[in-house]
Every structure is written in C-alpha cells, then in structure tokens.
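Supplementary Text 2. Reproducibility record for the structural model of the 298-residue chain.

All settings were left at their defaults, and a single model was retained for analysis rather than an ensemble. We include the record here because the model underlies the residue-level annotations in Supplementary Table 4.
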Amino acid sequence: MMLSAKSRAAGIAFAVLAAFGFSFKAIFVKLAYQSAPVDAVTLLALRMSMSLPVILLMAIPILRQGPALTRKDYGWLFLLGVVGYYGSSMLDFMGLQYISAGLERLILFTYPMLTILIGVAFLGKKFEKKVLLAMALAYAGILFAFMHDVSVSAEMSTVIVGGLLVFGCAVLYAGYSAGSEAAIGRLGAMKFSVLALLVSTMATLVHFLLTHRLTTLNLPLPVYGWCLAMALFSTVLPIFWQSAAVFRIGAARAVMIGLLGPVLTIFFSWWLLKEPISLEQMLGTGLVICGLLVVIRR
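Retained model, structure tokens:
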C-alpha cells in the first residue's frame, strides 16, 4: 500500500512538472524576443536543433522496438510531423510576437475540442453534444482574455493577428492529434512521437537554411540561453514527465493536472514578463478550464 501511495505521489509530481514545462514554453519565447531582434523561424530552428541530440538518443533504442516502418508509416510521419510540430509551432512562435503569453496558452488549450470536431468531420467519429457546451465556455473565456489583451495593447489589429496565428496553431495541432491515432496504435505513442519530432526538426532546419543566412545566428548569449531552456525544459523533458505521469496515475488524471497550464503561464508571465493580470483574464481562464473539464469528464 505504501509503495502504491509513493507511486501515485510520484505520478502527480511528474504531471505537475509536465504542466510546468509545457506552460513555460511561451514564457521562454517572449523572453527571447525581449533579449534581441530575432524572428520566429530562427527561434524555432534554435529550439529544435538544441533538442536534436536528446531526440536522437531517444530514437536509437526506440527504433529497434515494435514493427518495421512501412511506406505508409513514413508518409503519415512526414505529413503529421510537418503539420503537427513544425507547422503548428511556427504559427505559435509568430503569434507570440503579437499577444500575451496568457492569451496564447488559452487559445492553444482549445485543441482537444478541435480534435473532436476534426474526428467527427473527417474520421467518422461520433459527435457528443457536450462538445458544444465545452466550446461555448472555452471561446467565451477566450473572448474575455482577448478583451484583456486589447485593453493593454496599443492596437487591436495586432491582437487579432496574433490570436488568429495561434488559433491556426491549435487547428494544426488538433489535426495532428486526430490523425495520429492510427499511427500510434501501430507504432506506439513514444516511437511515433520521437519520429514525428525528428521529421519536424528536419523541416524546421530546412526552412531556416532556405530563408536565412548563417550570420543570422550571430545573436546575444541570452537568446541562446532561453532557447536551450526551451529545448530541454519545455520540449524534451515534458515528454518524459508526461509519460511517467500517465504510467503511474493514468491518462485522465494526468490530463486533469495539466489544466494547471494556463494558470501557471499567466502567473509567470505576470512575474517574469511584467504582463498585467486583470479580472477579465482570470474569468476567461476559468471558463476555458471549465470547457476542458466538460470535454474530459467521463
């Protein structure tokens, strides 16, 4: 019994760490933008290239497990890796140039509902009425948070552009989540995730090399520091933490604890980025979390 309690406590701790790491990604991006004039492509290329050694170390033993990859597997990995990680991350990094870290996190947290809708529209999944209630709550919350950003921003147009870019990120990641179900069933979650990360890393680096000179990398040290922190603490380690949490306490509890993410992002954006907190933002956060609870409730 004591061992079970310890295992459960460890699972909760890993889930909190995963939520902490994922929520801090936007903070690191904003801190890098504040450190020097740097664009989204360069930041994403630095993040993925710094993650690459660890991803490769993970990939070597994982590739030896499970069935051999077929031509269809390679096609799905390429499509989902480019769309899910590279495409969504690019839009996310671009959007963070215009909106607060708190609003970004709330918009991204609508991806589970979008995943369900994509499954209903294209994959023959059954529609549940509770999704409409969840989306009504979530998007009402985003509207409150949007009002907060508009009130502290010089121009409404920049908030709209940033919000649309991050919403595009959520749509692409929802497409990745919906489309990856069959591939995960065949290859396993960890193997698929690592291979998709490899594909997205290659796509990001190719994009950078085709559009930027290497002299672009002549950046102040703080930018490299924030990118390294992002690569380790908000890219690689949360994958292990989340897997360890699911193994010990199950996916449902791990997802519930992950709802800490928006609250953590708002708190640390206020503390580290000096982004103001308002009643509208907190109300919006509460509504988005309520919407997510409706979706994941059994």
